[in-house]
Amino acid sequence: MEKIGHYVAIFGGAVAGSEAVYQLIKNDINLVVFDQNALPYGKIESGLPKWHVKLRDKQEQKIDERISDPKIKYVPNVHLGKDIDFIDVVKNWGFSAVLLANGAWRDRPLQVEGIDAYIGNGLYYQNPLVAWFNQNHDPNYKGEWLDIVDGAIVVGGGLASLDIIKIVMLVTVEKALKEKGYKANALMLEHKGISTVLNELGLTFDDLGIKGATLYTRQGIEHMPLAALPKNADDIMREKIYNVRRKVLKIAMDKFLFKVVDNHVPADKIIKNGRLTGLKFNRTETKNDKIKVFTDEFIDVEVPLVISAIGSIPELIPGIPTKGEVYRVNDIESGQLEGFDNVFILGNAVTGRGNIRDTQAHGRKVTERIVDQFMVNSEEDYKELFDRAEELTDFRLSTIGDKIKSFSPLTSEKIQKLMQKITALQNRTGYNGNYQQWVKKYTPPRLENMIQHEK
Predict the structure, then answer these.
(1) How far is CA 305 from CA 156, 223, 282, in A?
(2) Nearest to 279 by CA among 311, 304, 296, 259
(3) CATH 3.50.50.60: which residues of the chain?
(4) Second CATH level (architecture) for the domain 7-105+314-454
(5) Who is most buried in 109, 304, 369, 401, counting CB within 10 A?
(6) Strand pairing report for 7-11 and 97-100
(7) pLDDT tens digits, residue range 257-301?
(8) 11 with 102: CB under 8 angstroms?
(9) CATH classification of 106-311 is 3.90.550.10, yes or no?
(10) Crossing angle for the helix pair 235-256 and 194-201, nearest 10 degrees?
(11) Alpha-carbon distance 127 to 373, whole Å?
(12) β 326-327/259-261 pair status
């Protein structure tokens, strides 16, 4: 017999969602975890570049340990807003509360009028690119195949764009090496560095017939977020940080052999024969942290491929109020969704960029920010983002848990009707309730295992 009490729906089982599971299950609250994919790993699986093997495995194991708890009901392959209606779930299903930990799966649009008409025809965005890169070694891959060609440009400048340009270089160099008869794979190239591998083989880009990719940024190199600039930094400290940023970028450029053109912002598209063949840029200048765009200066850059890497934003879901690119909340402390007493936002789907409050946890400040845009360089940076997401979730749940307990418990009749809906969804997706068996069936082949097997 189902336990009478509170039932909470959690949409998204990755970092924030699994942390909510961990905290709420200790408070004797019944949970149903929905995920839009077969596996609840979110961007750990499709956004964390595949060379982060140990960190990926560690984070996914943590999620598995939490969601495999027999008290958790897991519902895979159910996309909120597509397979089931948000308002219907909140108003009619009977959950005590609904927690949205669905992350940011939508690419921030490149601000060039009409350019999205050329997606897949000269233009790619970062989220599909990383998802493809993480799976393209799978011989049974059935998704869209992206054609990453030499000479591509990446438009960005934030942390995301650095991993994107790195991926582009790994893919193009691996392909060129294989065409010349050399063994190569993304993990080896990433670990050693492209420059080291080519030096060991006695090869140059000219030998491979490639010229490499270029990153275009709207600000100067010194303004790229490669090292934190302290608040109220004086001119001396500011210049020190700028030098660190220049040095960090140079190390990456030397290792992976990409180029950077700073102080350029896209202004228009270049179209030839119905295909996007480049961008028109305006030159920019940064003074006192403000960007001046020289709108009367145009630079034509004709290339075979444009990749936009300017960030991720929450998916638009019918019924969820938004403010600009983000979800609108009443209460920043709890993440309570505007207009709903029992709907709360966790992790990346939440509104803003300012501080919730300065809360020390493990020596870090928990800040309200988009924490699952994982495209950064080092494993330590990624782990920092995972930890911050968990801390932010814990911070919110201290308030959310009290609110849930103040609601009236569900009656046995309501619970029975709710469980009928859950069981029907599980049956529709083919999920038999054995979480570990399900994970084993749907975990994709790992490149590191394939390489080891080849040896």
Answers:
(1) 14, 26, 19
(2) 304
(3) 106-311
(4) 3-Layer(aba) Sandwich (3.40)
(5) 401
(6) parallel
(7) 999 999 999 999 999 999 999 999 999 998 877 899 999 999 999
(8) yes
(9) no
(10) 40
(11) 10
(12) unpaired
Domain with CATH 3.40.50.720 in the chain: 7-105+314-454
- How far apart CA 450 and CA 296 sit, in angstroms, is 53
Rounded distance between C-alpha atoms, residue 39 and residue 49, angstroms: 17
> Which two tokens mark 416?
């029975």
pLDDT tens digits for range 71-93: 899 999 999 999 999 999 999 99
Helices (H) and strands (E) in the chain, counts: 14, 21
Per the listing, tokens 């046995």 go with: 412
Residue 29 tokens read as 């609250």
Task: Give the Cβ contact number of residue 237 at 10 Å.
Answer: 12
**Nearest 5°: phi and psi at 115?**
-75, -25
DSSP state of 142: -
- Which residues lie closer than 8 Å to 8 by C-beta, 6 or more apart? 24, 29, 30, 31, 32, 95, 96, 97, 98, 99, 404
User: How far is 138 from 186, CA to CA, in rounded Å?
Assistant: 13
Length of the chain: 455
